[in-house]
Amino acid sequence: MYAFEGFVYALDNCPSSSQLVGDFSAMKSKGARNVITFDLCGNGDDSTYYDKVISAAGSAGINIIPLVWTLVDNGQSFSKDVIPRIQAVTKAVINNPGPVLAVALGDEPLYDNDFGSASNLAKYINQMRTDFKNAGIPNIPLSISDMAYGWQISGDISSVVDAVDFFMINNFPYFAWDAKDGGSSTSWNDFTKDITYFEGIAQGKPLLVTQTGWPSNRDEFAPNSKNIVVSLEAEQGYWNLLDSHCEDFFKSKNIGWMWRSWDESIEGWGVTSNGKDKWNFSARTTC
């Protein structure tokens, strides 16, 4: 797959089965083929909730990438909180692997050093692969969803490069120090620079931009550039920028992109707000 592939979908509001099916179906009507989860419902350790999420994707006819939330808050620990989350997602995928496109072990786990080291992260990726193999589903692709910067600051990353089946990329020109308008050539240059980095380490493994986007306000994450434009028009401009490079970039490199996010659970970053489209968005899935 290449070009527009789908959306990031936050679970922190614990959407019901009916809402999950409704949202996933609405995504599909907009051309989405995939959805990747973000954040967690409750403690994130309830496999039956992930059963609902995966089942909803199947009902809507969309592929899902369950993401294990590996970041810990104050008072939490890796052994007490993260390991049960890994176990919950693993169990749910084993229960219903059909709709599962892949599994992400963490959102920016290298950048946040969730596992203490790259080699320890690789160990848990390989353990999940073993668990799936033992359950009779050896072909579930595994990766992490992280930024180029997360990989660049993590020392010897060779074990993680070897462990992942493909590269899930968080690519946000919005945070660049030279960021301007969403639809600007600067945004595209910053986007492609990160892709070039991943091409250099991927050893021929596939690339998928699992998270990219541009917010319509600054409420959730402040930018780093004093010259940035943050508005609905800038968000729409960045969306259109990605779509405009379908032929010359995404098709030629066989790379897809997924937008963060579907709704305003991540304030300002959604394409919908209160169930309504923020603009009349569409993007090509072939070109």
Automatic annotation (TrEMBL):
It comes from Pyrrhoderma noxium. Keywords: Carbohydrate metabolism, Cell membrane, Cell wall biogenesis/degradation, Glycoprotein, Hydrolase, Membrane, Polysaccharide degradation. It is found in: Cell membrane. Belongs to the glycosyl hydrolase 17 family. The keyword Transferase does not apply. It is a single-pass type II membrane protein. InterPro entries: Beta-glucan_modifiers (IPR050732), GH (IPR017853). Its EC number is 3.2.1.39. This is glucan endo-1,3-beta-D-glucosidase. PANTHER family: GLUCAN 1,3-BETA-GLUCOSIDASE, GLUCAN ENDO-1,3-BETA-GLUCOSIDASE BTGC. GO terms for biological process: cell wall organization; polysaccharide catabolic process.
